[in-house]
Amino acid sequence: MPGDATIKKRIPAWRKLLYVGVVFCLFLSFVEIALRLHGLIALKTTRGNLPADRDRVILCLGDSFTYGIGAGAGESYPAHLQRMISQVHPEGVRVVNLGHPYMDSTSLLAALPDYLDRWNPDVVLLLAGYNNRFRKHADANKKGARAFLKKMFGSLKIYQFARIIWINLNVDPNSRIDPNVPALEAKEIAGVLENREEFAKVKKIFEPYAMGQGEIAEPADGDPAQQYIAYGLFLITKSRTALAEEYLHTALKLAPDNLLATMGIGYIYLYRNELVMGFRKARFDLDSSWLYAGMAYYRMDAGDYEGAIRFFEESRRIEPYFLPVPHGLAMTYLKMGRPDDALFQLLAAEALEPWNAEIQWTKGEILLAAGEGQKAVEAFELSLDYSHRHPGHYARIARAWVERPENPDRDFQETVTASIGPRSADWQLLGRWTKNILAKSDEGRAALNLIEDLDDMADIMEEREIPIILMSYPDTFYRNRLADFARRRGIVFVDHTPVFKEIMRNHQRGEIFRRDGHCTAKGYKVMADNLLQTLDEMELSGPRVSP
Question: Residue 9: helix, strand or coil by DSSP?
Fold first, then answer.
């Protein structure tokens, strides 16, 4: 009978959900406690096991301005900083450069725990934010419940752990580009030295090294240019290209038209200026159109425009339809104040590769210099499209507007482009376009995202008791926001902007900044000088224990 059946007591659905919720909350609490305990134990173990006489580690984090784009290897601000500290303290202090091109604050936050675990720094120098505008960000302007919940849960380790995992899943895998200069083989150089009688003196110095009979002696004051050239080429075989450049430059001071010294610098220049990317090896011989192009770009930047034209023409003779030649000639003629010739060469380059973003950017510069504001804007827009909205092009656009002349008509009367310089109307047109482009790049959201990431980074380093030195970029990007953040968090802030403004009073822009806005070697040294003063004041520029 129905009455005899065992009546099964059913648990209501709401109670099941309640049980599941309680178990889930207990699980999260357990994970939170475990993460906190693990962090505490790891921190005490790691910091506690550091020997008192270990090297002091100064960790430099950031983007391409930390990496050193725009200067040679060994010419970034961390490299300059290491050399300056080593002059006073030959041992006991290590400056580590972990800057990466295109790194934004979100990617840096994801990598920060690993960096700190690996290096256990005594101080962190931080420069980030430039690339934030080029990522897609959540709407950081929202208020109310979401902001309240984020503030409440933001300090939870499990939340931070989950966020780092999520960020890592979205980090651009191409953010670690390494444009190093490939080392030359001694036999490559020896083969070139066989070709010309004028290389005989360098051959005599270099040949024993090429045959494995010992290294080349470092030149001393009073030595001939050939000794400097041989030693510079020797350093390229050892991948010490920054130092090689110094010796080859010295050789050119002694012998300004020396072909072999120019070849050495031209080879390095191909990679320093990203004419050839690190995965491709350029030939080092006088039948290489690439090498002649590198020599020409070096001569152009050195102000020897006639020499640059001569080398570009040699490159064209070897390879008639070689894109860097008309593009480089266009840039050279623009510097010479010959816009018609520049535009003619640029159109030849455009015919070879019309979809090239760099070609369109140079075309925009030429048209702007010629007073063709509307056409210049159209070229800049094409450059942006062809680059697939590349971060570097956004930065160029913003910088072109920020650094515009206050009075174009008056200021350009004193320049080489006096008769063709851009006038006020053209700059106003460029300004309207710039404002529209940057509005599309979520500038405001990117800035708020930067501050959120910096807050998280400050929390991590505060927990580990690692001091931070936050710095501004050489220009004014995010300067006020970074300064306000540092003031709010009680973080040391180094402002590079006024220092660079003062430097620019007595220097040409090309001496301090590259065409794309990155610093030259001299510009990065200015940053290092400024930072060293702060490190000295904080007593962090010397060894942990005096020898």
Answer: coil
Structural domains of the chain, ranges and CATH numbers in brackets: 50-171+443-537 (3.40.50.1110), 186-322 (1.25.40)
> What is the Cα–Cα distance from 244 to 226, expressed in whole angstroms?
13
Distance CA 367, CA 372 (A): 5
What tokens appear for 251 in the block? Answer: 């050789």
Mean pLDDT value across the chain: 78
Question: Cα 352 vs. chain centroid, distance in angstroms?
Answer: 29
CA angle 350, 354, 358 (to 5 degrees): 75
- Identify whether the C-beta of residue 317 lies closer than 8 Å to the C-beta of residue 301: no
Half-sphere exposure of 248 (CA within 13 A, CB side): 25
Distance of CA 243 to the CA centre of its chain: 20
CA distance 102 to 173: 11
Range with top average pLDDT, 80-94, 158-172, 342-356: 80-94
Measured in degrees and rounded to the nearest 5, phi and psi for residue 135 equal -105, 160
Q: Is the distance from CB of 77 to CB of 60 less than 8 angstroms? A: yes
One-character DSSP codes across 405-421: -SSHHHHGGGSTTTTTP
Element (H, E) at 125: strand 123-127
pLDDT tens digit string along 253-293? 898 888 999 999 999 888 766 666 444 567 888 888 888 99
d(CA 389, CA 134): 8
Evaluated on CA atoms 197, 199, 202, 207, the torsion sign reads negative
CA distances from 207 to 160, 187, 192, 213 (A): 59, 9, 11, 9
